[in-house]
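Whiteboard transcription, Tuesday session. T.W. wrote the C-alpha cells on the left side:
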C-alpha cells in the first residue's frame, strides 16, 4: 500500500479539573488562542477546549478535556510525560523565563539538549510542559501567533514541539514507529541522566519528533488532572486516513476505525506500551462553523449533536471566553 509519511504532531489532548482556570492559564499566561470551545463528543457533559496559534493550524493545538472530579496524577511510565511548545528563538526563552517567574509558574533554568535550548515548566495542575527554541529548527514550519494575544507575536508559541513518552519497553514502541508508522530513528541525547531516543517523520524538526525514555524503575502512571490523554499525528486527508485504517488491520493492531470529528477525521489505537495514539486529518479545520474573528467565543457543536444543544448546555457550567 502506497502510504505518505505522517506529517508530524497534530494535537495533544490532556486532562484538567477546572476549565476556567485552564482557560486563564493557557490564554492569559501562555498567550495561546482558544480556537474552539466545544464538548467531548464521546461524553458531552465535559468541555473540550482547543488552544493553538491564530487559527488552529494543524500541529499547533493543545487541547483539554475538563473532568471535574479528576484526581491527582500518580506519575509513572507508559505515558506521555512532557509536551513541548515551540517558540521562535533562543531570545524568546529569556522572555519566557522572566514571564513565568513574574506569574509564579513553576519552572526550571534554560538548558540545552538535543542541540536545542529549552525551558521546562508546569501548569497549575502539574501538567508537564517545555518551551523549545525554533532558532536552529529545520523541518516542519510553525504556526503564527494571534496578534491579539497576551504575549508579543515575536515570542509567541508557534506550535507543538516534540512529544516525550516514557515507556517500560522501548523496543516494542520503536518497532511500531519505524516498521509500522514509517518513522526514522534519528539519534539520542541525555536528559537528567536518562537517555532519550529521538524518532522523526516527514520533514522532521521540532514539529515532527517523538522523544522516548525507557524506565524500568517506575510504576505505570495513574492518570488524573495534569496528565496527557493522547497524542495525535497529522495525516494529509481522508483518503490517506482510510489507508491507515486498512494498514492497522493488516498489522493486526486493534483500532477505532474511521471516526468523524467534524473539525478533522480521526483514527485511534494504542501503541505496545498502552499509550493512546490518534491519527487526524489536517482539515477541514476550526473555521468550519465559526468565523476567524470569533473563534472560541461560543460553545460550538458539530451538526450531528447540534439538536442536543439545550440538553448539553444544561449540564456544563458556563465559561466566558469572549475575546476582550
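and on the right, the sequence the group agreed on:
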Amino acid at each position: 500500500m502506497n502510504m505518505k509519511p505522517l506529517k508530524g504532531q497534530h494535537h495533544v489532548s490532556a486532562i484538567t479539573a477546572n476549565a476556567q482556570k485552564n482557560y486563564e492559564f493557557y490564554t492569559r499566561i501562555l498567550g495561546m488562542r482558544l480556537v474552539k470551545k466545544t464538548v467531548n463528543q464521546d461524553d458531552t457533559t465535559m468541555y473540550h477546549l482547543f488552544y493553538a496559534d491564530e487559527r488552529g493550524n494543524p500541529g499547533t493545538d493543545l487541547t483539554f478535556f475538563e473532568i471535574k472530579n479528576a484526581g491527582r496524577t500518580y506519575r509513572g511510565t507508559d505515558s506521555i510525560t512532557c509536551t513541548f511548545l515551540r517558540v521562535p528563538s533562543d531570545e524568546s526563552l529569556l522572555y519566557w523565563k522572566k514571564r513565568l517567574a513574574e506569574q509564579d509558574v513553576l519552572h526550571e533554568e534554560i538548558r540545552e539538549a538535543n542541540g536545542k535550548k529549552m525551558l521546562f515548566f508546569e501548569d497549575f495542575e502539574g501538567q508537564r510542559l517545555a518551551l523549545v527554541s525554533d532558532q536552529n529548527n529545520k523541518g516542519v514550519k510553525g504556526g503564527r501567533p494571534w496578534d491579539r494575544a497576551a504575549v508579543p507575536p515575536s515570542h509567541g508559541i508557534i506550535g507543538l514541539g516534540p512529544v516525550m513518552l516514557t515507556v517500560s519497553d522501548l523496543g516494542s514502541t520503536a518497532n511500531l514507529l519505524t516498521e509500522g508508522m514509517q518513522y526514522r530513528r534519528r539519534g539520542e541525547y541525555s536528559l537528567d541522566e536518562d537517555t532519550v531516543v529521538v524518532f522523526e517523520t516527514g520533514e522532521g524538526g521540532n514539529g515532527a519528533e517523538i522523544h522516548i525514555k525507557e524506565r524500568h524503575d517506575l510504576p505505570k502512571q495513574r492518570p488524573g488532572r495534569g496528565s496527557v490523554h493522547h497524542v495525535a499525528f497529522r495525516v494529509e486527508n481522508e483518503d490517506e486516513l482510510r489507508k491507515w485504517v486498512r494498514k492497522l488491520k493488516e498489522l493486526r493492531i486493534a483500532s477505532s476505525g474511521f471516526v468523524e470529528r467534524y473539525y478533522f477525521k480521526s483514527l485511534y489505537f494504542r501503541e505496545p506500551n498502552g499509550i493512546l495514539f490518534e491519527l487526524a486529518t489536517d482539515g477541514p479545520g476550526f473555521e468550519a462553523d465559526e468565523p476567524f474573528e470569533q473563534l472560541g467565543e461560543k460553545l460550538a457543536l458539530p451538526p450531528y449533536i447540534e439538536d442536543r444543544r439545550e440538553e448539553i448546555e444544561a449540564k456544563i457550567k458556563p465559561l466566558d471566553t469572549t475575546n476582550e
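Someone added at the bottom: The mean pLDDT is 97.
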